[in-house]
Amino acid sequence: MEKGTKLPKIVLWALFSISIVYFILLLTSIENQVNPGAKAENLISLGIYWTEILTLTGAAIALFYAVKGMFSDKKQALSSLGILGAFALVIIIAYVLSPADIPQFFGVEKFVADGSLTPSISRWVSTGLITTYILASIAILLVIGFSSVKIFKRS
Protein backbone atom coordinates (compact mmCIF):
# COMPACT_ATOMS: atom_id res chain seq x y z
CA MET A 1 0.00 0.00 0.00
CA GLU A 2 1.36 3.40 -0.99
CA LYS A 3 2.28 5.64 1.94
CA GLY A 4 -0.01 8.52 0.91
CA THR A 5 -3.11 6.38 0.48
CA LYS A 6 -3.00 4.39 3.72
CA LEU A 7 -4.86 6.90 5.90
CA PRO A 8 -7.68 7.63 3.42
CA LYS A 9 -8.25 3.90 2.90
CA ILE A 10 -8.52 3.38 6.65
CA VAL A 11 -10.94 6.33 6.95
CA LEU A 12 -13.07 5.09 4.05
CA TRP A 13 -13.21 1.53 5.41
CA ALA A 14 -14.21 2.89 8.83
CA LEU A 15 -16.99 4.97 7.25
CA PHE A 16 -18.11 1.94 5.25
CA SER A 17 -18.23 -0.20 8.40
CA ILE A 18 -20.27 2.41 10.27
CA SER A 19 -22.64 2.58 7.28
CA ILE A 20 -23.16 -1.20 7.34
CA VAL A 21 -23.90 -1.14 11.09
CA TYR A 22 -26.30 1.79 10.56
CA PHE A 23 -28.08 -0.05 7.73
CA ILE A 24 -28.54 -3.21 9.81
CA LEU A 25 -29.76 -1.13 12.76
CA LEU A 26 -32.27 0.64 10.53
CA LEU A 27 -33.58 -2.60 9.03
CA THR A 28 -34.06 -4.21 12.42
CA SER A 29 -35.87 -1.19 13.88
CA ILE A 30 -38.68 -1.02 11.31
CA GLU A 31 -41.92 -2.22 12.90
CA ASN A 32 -44.00 -2.62 9.72
CA GLN A 33 -44.32 -1.12 6.23
CA VAL A 34 -47.25 1.16 7.06
CA ASN A 35 -45.86 2.56 10.31
CA PRO A 36 -42.08 2.24 10.61
CA GLY A 37 -42.09 3.49 14.22
CA ALA A 38 -40.46 6.40 16.01
CA LYS A 39 -37.08 4.69 16.32
CA ALA A 40 -36.93 4.00 12.58
CA GLU A 41 -38.03 7.55 11.77
CA ASN A 42 -35.23 8.93 13.95
CA LEU A 43 -32.76 6.61 12.24
CA ILE A 44 -33.99 7.76 8.84
CA SER A 45 -33.38 11.39 9.87
CA LEU A 46 -29.94 10.39 11.13
CA GLY A 47 -29.36 8.66 7.78
CA ILE A 48 -29.85 11.93 5.94
CA TYR A 49 -27.14 13.56 8.05
CA TRP A 50 -24.91 10.50 7.64
CA THR A 51 -25.28 10.77 3.86
CA GLU A 52 -24.18 14.40 4.02
CA ILE A 53 -21.13 13.44 6.11
CA LEU A 54 -20.19 10.68 3.66
CA THR A 55 -20.61 12.99 0.67
CA LEU A 56 -18.51 15.75 2.21
CA THR A 57 -15.81 13.32 3.33
CA GLY A 58 -15.61 11.72 -0.11
CA ALA A 59 -15.52 15.10 -1.82
CA ALA A 60 -12.82 16.39 0.54
CA ILE A 61 -10.61 13.35 -0.04
CA ALA A 62 -11.12 13.55 -3.80
CA LEU A 63 -10.32 17.27 -3.88
CA PHE A 64 -7.27 16.82 -1.66
CA TYR A 65 -5.77 14.20 -3.95
CA ALA A 66 -6.70 16.17 -7.07
CA VAL A 67 -4.90 19.25 -5.75
CA LYS A 68 -1.98 17.13 -4.51
CA GLY A 69 -1.64 15.53 -7.96
CA MET A 70 -2.03 18.87 -9.69
CA PHE A 71 0.85 20.46 -7.78
CA SER A 72 3.15 17.44 -7.98
CA ASP A 73 4.10 18.41 -11.54
CA LYS A 74 4.70 22.08 -12.43
CA LYS A 75 3.62 21.68 -16.07
CA GLN A 76 0.43 19.91 -15.02
CA ALA A 77 -0.23 22.59 -12.39
CA LEU A 78 0.00 25.37 -14.97
CA SER A 79 -2.28 23.45 -17.33
CA SER A 80 -4.83 22.87 -14.56
CA LEU A 81 -4.74 26.51 -13.48
CA GLY A 82 -5.28 27.53 -17.12
CA ILE A 83 -8.35 25.31 -17.33
CA LEU A 84 -9.69 26.71 -14.06
CA GLY A 85 -9.05 30.25 -15.37
CA ALA A 86 -10.93 29.49 -18.58
CA PHE A 87 -13.84 28.11 -16.57
CA ALA A 88 -13.85 31.24 -14.39
CA LEU A 89 -13.85 33.36 -17.55
CA VAL A 90 -16.89 31.49 -18.87
CA ILE A 91 -18.70 32.13 -15.56
CA ILE A 92 -17.79 35.83 -15.64
CA ILE A 93 -19.04 36.14 -19.23
CA ALA A 94 -22.27 34.35 -18.29
CA TYR A 95 -22.73 36.65 -15.28
CA VAL A 96 -22.29 39.75 -17.43
CA LEU A 97 -24.78 38.41 -20.00
CA SER A 98 -27.43 37.38 -17.47
CA PRO A 99 -30.30 39.79 -16.75
CA ALA A 100 -30.88 41.01 -13.20
CA ASP A 101 -34.65 41.37 -13.51
CA ILE A 102 -37.05 38.82 -12.08
CA PRO A 103 -38.69 36.71 -14.80
CA GLN A 104 -42.46 37.01 -15.15
CA PHE A 105 -44.38 33.75 -14.95
CA PHE A 106 -47.58 32.50 -13.35
CA GLY A 107 -47.22 32.51 -9.55
CA VAL A 108 -44.02 34.56 -9.39
CA GLU A 109 -45.58 36.92 -6.84
CA LYS A 110 -45.62 34.14 -4.24
CA PHE A 111 -41.86 33.55 -4.58
CA VAL A 112 -41.09 37.27 -4.50
CA ALA A 113 -43.32 37.79 -1.45
CA ASP A 114 -41.67 35.07 0.64
CA GLY A 115 -38.19 36.21 -0.38
CA SER A 116 -37.15 33.01 -2.15
CA LEU A 117 -36.79 34.89 -5.47
CA THR A 118 -34.78 38.08 -5.56
CA PRO A 119 -33.02 39.85 -8.43
CA SER A 120 -29.69 38.45 -7.17
CA ILE A 121 -30.99 34.87 -7.09
CA SER A 122 -32.54 35.33 -10.52
CA ARG A 123 -29.24 36.60 -11.89
CA TRP A 124 -27.27 33.66 -10.47
CA VAL A 125 -29.79 31.17 -11.86
CA SER A 126 -29.46 32.85 -15.26
CA THR A 127 -25.68 32.72 -14.90
CA GLY A 128 -25.84 28.97 -14.26
CA LEU A 129 -28.07 28.42 -17.28
CA ILE A 130 -25.93 30.55 -19.60
CA THR A 131 -22.76 28.82 -18.32
CA THR A 132 -24.37 25.47 -19.14
CA TYR A 133 -25.30 26.67 -22.62
CA ILE A 134 -21.79 27.99 -23.29
CA LEU A 135 -20.06 24.81 -22.07
CA ALA A 136 -22.50 22.56 -23.96
CA SER A 137 -21.91 24.59 -27.13
CA ILE A 138 -18.16 24.30 -26.71
CA ALA A 139 -18.46 20.53 -26.17
CA ILE A 140 -20.65 20.10 -29.27
CA LEU A 141 -18.31 22.22 -31.39
CA LEU A 142 -15.28 20.23 -30.20
CA VAL A 143 -16.97 16.93 -31.05
CA ILE A 144 -17.89 18.22 -34.52
CA GLY A 145 -14.44 19.74 -35.01
CA PHE A 146 -12.48 16.64 -34.02
CA SER A 147 -14.76 14.44 -36.10
CA SER A 148 -14.27 16.69 -39.12
CA VAL A 149 -10.50 16.69 -38.67
CA LYS A 150 -10.52 12.88 -38.54
CA ILE A 151 -12.62 12.66 -41.70
CA PHE A 152 -10.40 15.06 -43.64
CA LYS A 153 -7.24 13.44 -42.31
CA ARG A 154 -8.26 10.03 -43.71
CA SER A 155 -9.04 11.33 -47.19
Radius of gyration, whole Å: 24 Å
Helical stretch tally: 5
Write down the domain tally: 2
User: How many β-strands, per DSSP?
Assistant: 0
Low-confidence stretches: none
Order of helices and strands: HHHHH
Residue share in helix: over 70%
Structural category is: mainly alpha
Oligomer: single chain
Cα(first) to Cα(last) distance is 49 Å
Residue-averaged pLDDT: 86
Largest sheet: none
β-sheet strand percentage = under 5%
Taken from the alpha-carbon principal axes, the silhouette is: extended
Describe the structure.
The protein is an all-alpha fold. The chain folds into 2 domains: 1-72; 74-155. The chain is built from 5 helices and no strands. The protein has helices spanning 6-29, 38-70, 74-97, 108-113, 119-154. The longest helix is centred in the C-terminal third of the chain and has 36 residues, at 119-154. The relative contact order is 0.05.
